[in-house]
């Protein structure tokens, strides 16, 4: 992935986003919105709006990555220096390790559900751990081969298209009549809509940091921007529609709508081959997502922290950390704390998007100093964290406020310094 090829077209980016949007945890976004009892149209509009915001930001980062040819690790080092940058490498690595394990655990649960459905018995912890470890290692092996990954990205989309067609055929005409529940919903408050749009956009805070790296491979600036912008919108739209299809199928089978993917898949079909087919599809998506969104950036950070180029050693460190902290994230007794930890990583890392974009845009003008970039980041991130601590709640919409605040602050600093330079 570190090899720059300059051969990524718009279609490559769209293919990438379609794959990462189909990973099991991403469906939690729609499940959360459905919990408000909104209709599908409202959910789709919120998903599209949030995706468009992050898509525009990712598009800009892709263009800047292509022009500068600098990756995330290099940019952090340029802005925060050797000593302080390691703090971000550690946080980024832990964030990726956590999500890597969560994705593996979600895929493992799909397999366990399938085994339980097939055998009619409860599956114990030993089979669960065995499957988890096998997937953990296998995913890392596949992630090390960029050629295999590109093929996987293409194959998964083809298989998914076939699978959705088969599901729709299986559902038949009842789909339309049973989809009436999508037409009604409660009256919406502007605050709820804005907050939910920010939640959708904030979901991609961590993955968005990869756009500097992926942008380096773009054929043109247009490909880097439109590929990311269109890609995230198409990917999230497709994910929301697929989630709705599974929810409707769950209603047909049980009389109740279930937006939880792991549960709704159990009612997808009475055919065992169909269940196996669907589980395989989501396993492929999990591998693709983990490879590009979690494994690759985490290995980058490990290399930057320890200056080690030994691929197997870095991979072993990552897998050990991921397997060690994943039970913590999944434990029912610490789930709330784990949720806050993931949010904290996003809170600390999200404002970096604005800082790095500003740095690349204004680097040649030398109007804003490195120290000023650091203070802008610390002040706005501190306000973000402070507001959440005071209110004791997760305020997802504040990440946009912090990013906008950094943009405005740096712009004002740039204007002031430019006027002073002209005056002198």
From TrEMBL:
Sequence similarity: Belongs to the purine-cytosine permease (2.A.39) family.
Membrane-related topology note: Multi-pass membrane protein
GO cellular component terms listed in the entry, alphabetical order: plasma membrane
Organism listed in the record: Loigolactobacillus bifermentans DSM 20003
Molecular function per GO: nucleobase transmembrane transporter activity
Superkingdom classification of source: Bacteria
Transmembrane segments annotated in the record for this chain: 16-34, 40-64, 97-117, 123-143, 152-173, 193-212, 224-252, 272-293, 313-332, 338-362, 374-391, 397-414
Annotated coiled-coil segments of the chain: none
Major subcellular location class: membrane
Keywords, comma-separated and alphabetical: Membrane, Transmembrane, Transmembrane helix
Subcellular location field: Membrane
InterPro entries per the UniProt record, alphabetical: Pur-cyt_permease (IPR001248), Uracil/uridine/allantoin_perm (IPR045225)
Protein name: Cytosine permease
